[in-house]
Specification:
Nitrilase/N-carbamoyl-D-aminoacid amidohydrolase, 14 helices, globular, alpha/beta, 2 domains, 24 strands, 23% helix, 24% strand
Length: 584
Amino acid sequence: MRSETSLKRIPLFRHHRIRSAVVATVLAGLIPLLPGHEPTSAAAAHASPAPKTLKTATIHFAPEEGKVENNRAKMVELANQAAGKGAKLIVLPEMATSGYSFFSRAEMSKAAEEVPGKTTDALGAVARQHHAYIAFGMPVYEPDTNRYYNSAVLLGPDGRTRGVYHKRNHLIESSYNASSFEPIPTFDTEYGRMALVICSDMFNSQFPRAAAVQGADILIAPANVGIDTDFVRVRTFENDFSMIVANRWGKGTKGTKPEVFTQNTFTVPSPFPYDFDFGSRSIIMTPDGKVLADVSGQSDQIGYGEVPVRTSRTFPVERKPAMYSLMGQDTLEPYTQKQFHQPDPATFTAAAVDPGPSTAPWQAALDAAAKAVSQAESSGKKLRLIVFPANYFPGSDTAGLAKLTSFATGHGTDLLIHYPATGTEVPKSTLIASTGQSYDYRRTHHKRGEKLPEDRLSDDYLVIDRDYARLALMQDVDMMPPETAQVLARMGVDVVAMNTDWRDPVRSALWKSRTGDYLHIVTANKSGPEGIYLGGYKADPSFTEDEGIVIRDITTGDVRAKPSARFFDPTTILEPCREAAHTC
């Protein structure tokens, strides 16, 4: 079920009122329906044509810390400016009314507001005057429970509050920010379905994914964080939606811990003063990765872009929710993680190798493997894993496979090879282990429009404990859905060995993003550079890419303490596919 809001305690937002309002609006034909839903009334059938684009504005500005009235006046000024230029969706930063530097409930009590309140009234007047949607971040106070939230608010063209979302992934903000568990809110509009997240929620792929599975066409993300266009491109690619990020610039404070305190003055200071000039960007991007606005710098600015209003959307790779059930199990609880019985933490050397075009691919692979081993040995290293590209070997060859097996056992090096699809089989990866054993992994997912024998796709990931690492065998298409990395992490995987044949420019950023789930990735690419991408945020540089061969040391201990998204309910992601609603 799609939620209109997460703020249930205000009568405006009660579920029966929401359902009645939405049903009435649909029957009146005032909003377009999502893919798979047909008009159910004559009024809907004769409604005005839906707009083809939505002019959006991302407002990049620096709120003054703690000066709510000044900030509110500035927000109204900037929102009016954006609306005056025709923007119908206007997004302002996280904590725009107050600034970000708050470290206790007592500090927050001086800046938080109720909803509805002065800020929603002031910006609601702008929304009503210009018939625009306005989203912004603010601290919200809930008097019934005496709790504070870092929140995002969406106002509708009538000036009324459409919904409120409470940030989930908060660290030092926990000194004042209450926990929240409601679903990601989505909102049906004449421009498609919109959804809200806040700042660090973007970095946990589950939150944007939950919005997409609920049918979001546009993800709105008020933020106070360093970010780049490549990261946003990953989120728009994997979820097939437009994205508007509104960031801030300027400086904050670090807070001070008092010697004597109460539950309200209890303080969690930052280890350093906040610097919002570091990597701060406000971005508007389309589902195909086109950057419409990219605003940065130390001045108030507004970026504009016309995002498409779409009548259909889908995911680039078909989802398989039944494979993702581990996302609903708390295997990453710290005590539980310690019982995984993985191989002992170790540092080993791996290589991603593309032998290049050859009329004799088995011999070319053997020669390239020997060259990689020699190159590693010249640096005093022993190569334990070599990954070859997808689609490099045309098909199984008994003599060629015997030679590679002999090489693996003779050099103590595992080899991952790959066979392409045939008319009756899906692509297959084979790990030739240094012990002489072999392990086969068949493709589990398929890209949209890809012709594969569906009944031959596997329904299982494959994880192998080798003496140097817990290893997952993988193919590029299977790693594209963010759920895959989440499941592998929950099984304690250290290293993903992946065959790739993919030229898309989002490729490199996507693999880097997947290491955020504390996974190392080794991939050879027939259609692009080879790469080793390291998780755990300890290695510098965190990735190496090159054409032909990449050799690098990998430390499994760097990814053993795997984090988990906080206050996230995966139910929407795990629900069975509903083809009419395009949830897979």
